[in-house]
Automatic annotation (TrEMBL):
Catalytic activity: glutathione(out) + ATP + H2O = glutathione(in) + ADP + phosphate + H(+)
Top enzyme category: translocase
Subunit (UniProt): The complex is composed of two ATP-binding proteins (GsiA), two transmembrane proteins (GsiC and GsiD) and a solute-binding protein (GsiB).
Gene3D superfamilies linked to this entry: P-loop containing nucleotide triphosphate hydrolases
UniProt feature, compositional bias: Basic and acidic residues: 292-304
Protein name as it appears in the record: Glutathione import ATP-binding protein GsiA
Spans annotated as Disordered: 1-26, 282-314
Organism expressing this protein natively: Microlunatus endophyticus
Protein function: Part of the ABC transporter complex GsiABCD involved in glutathione import. Responsible for energy coupling to the transport system.
Subcellular location: Cell inner membrane
Length: 358
């Protein structure tokens, strides 16, 4: 397999994470492209209480997507749009309210108990590096714990712990350290090591680098890229930070109020965003290029208020913030349309027979 040369390390600037240069193209023929996981029309609702009434909150609504083996699927969207709920549904921490899920070509229960092998093959890394680790356990103990639970022998556990600590770029001596003795970036490396120790095929990273300083973020992202290659891992990488998602993802799903509004190869999404919400998100990223003043300003504060997931707008959920909204948008939810190879958009501007498409 080709080594990624040193000089593909991403540069960091004080302004933020610089996204160039992109990772070296891997020869795609050597990488399997079949989906490792598929979601079909998956929804998750919560029952919440408000003023003595029980209300239904639609956190994830009718999500269908594919995660290709050995690749990274990025998931972006503003806070509250359902990213963490979707991550938990994917890894089985939440059971879905409805829908179907396929892992490694076999149907897995979308709600209810999953087979043990499936649970072990999907691991999750969360945002907050400190709360995920037991403050009273050493790094080595934290990584070893899930392996012991699996019944692995002491000798094998020790060997595995030593290997993953080294694989995440920490000195072997850190095995005896406690979480409070480590920096945020080091603690997140420990969390990654703990996930890797179980030898998963898929890792769901929910805002895994969001709490870290930009320069540390870049190091952890490079580590993740190296581990993906060495372990042939499939990633679902969730972040509200589009720069980070663009850097690490092969494909990106844009979520708005629990629904997929756009799904495209990462480069294509950035060069040719189609959904008005994706355009809004991209126009709100601070540009890394000081000469680039061409980006639009985000919508003003009032019109950018996100509606509640308890009572989402009819038809297209984005219509209340959409500068392009038409009558049909309030009446019908737009179906996903494939506008080019692998580029899906759910917007009436692109549905056949719409004024705009015409
Ligand atoms: N356990 C829960 N109970 C009730 N509502 C929840 C729960 N978890 C998330 N939600 C709601 O679901 C919606 C999506 O939340 P979340 O998945 O955390 O979004 P994100 O990760 O994109 O910020 C929000 O409206 C949130 O308030
Ligand atoms: Mg979240």
């Amino acid at each position: 397999m080709t080594e990624i040369p040193e000089n593909t390390m991403i540069n960091t600037t004080e302004a933020g994470l610089a996204v160039a240069p992109p990772p070296v193209e891997q020869p795609s023929a050597t990488l399997p492209e079949r989906p490792l996981m598929e979601l079909l029309n998956v929804s998750k609702t919560f029952t919440v209480r408000s003023g003595g009434k029980r209300l239904t909150l639609s956190a994830v609504d009718g999500v269908s997507l594919r995660v290709r083996e050995g690749k990274t699927l990025g998931i972006v969207g503003e806070s509250g749009c359902g990213k963490s709920t979707l991550a938990r549904v994917i890894t089985g921490l939440h059971s879905a309210t409805s829908g179907e899920m396929i892992f490694d070509r076999a149907q897995i229960p979308a709600s209810g108990k999953r087979p043990k092998e499936v649970i072990q093959q999907m691991q999750m890394v969360f945002q907050d590096p400190s709360s995920a680790l037991n403050p009273r356990a050493t790094v080595g103990e934290s990584i070893a714990f899930p392996l012991r639970v699996q019944g692995m022998s002491r000798k094998d556990v020790d060997a595995r712990v030593t290997k993953v600590i080294s694989d995440v770029g920490l000195p072997a001596s850190y095995s005896g350290s406690y979480p409070h003795q480590l920096s945020g970036g080091q603690r997140q490396r420990v969390n990654i090591a703990r996930a890797l120790a179980l030898q998963p095929r898929m890792v769901v990273l929910d805002e895994a680098v969001s709490a870290l300083d930009k320069s540390i973020q870049a190091q952890v992202l490079n580590l993740l890229t190296d581990l993906q290659r060495d372990y042939n891992l499939t990633y679902v990488f969730i972040s509200h930070d589009l720069n980070v998602v663009e850097y690490i993802s092969d494909e990106v799903v844009v979520l708005y109020l629990g629904q997929v509004v756009e799904h495209a190869p990462a480069k294509e999404l950035w060069e040719n965003p189609q959904h008005p919400y994706t355009k809004l998100l991209l126009s709100s990223i601070p540009s890394m290029d000081p000469d680039d003043s061409t980006r639009d300003q985000p919508l003003d504060k009032d019109s950018s208020e996100i509606p509640s997931a308890i009572n989402p707008p009819s038809g297209c959920r984005f219509r209340t913030r959409c500068p392009m909204a038409m009558d049909i948008c309030a009446q019908q939810a737009p179906p996903p349309i494939e506008t080019s190879d692998g580029h899906l958009v759910a917007c009436h501007l692109y549905t056949e027979g719409s004024q705009a498409a015409a």
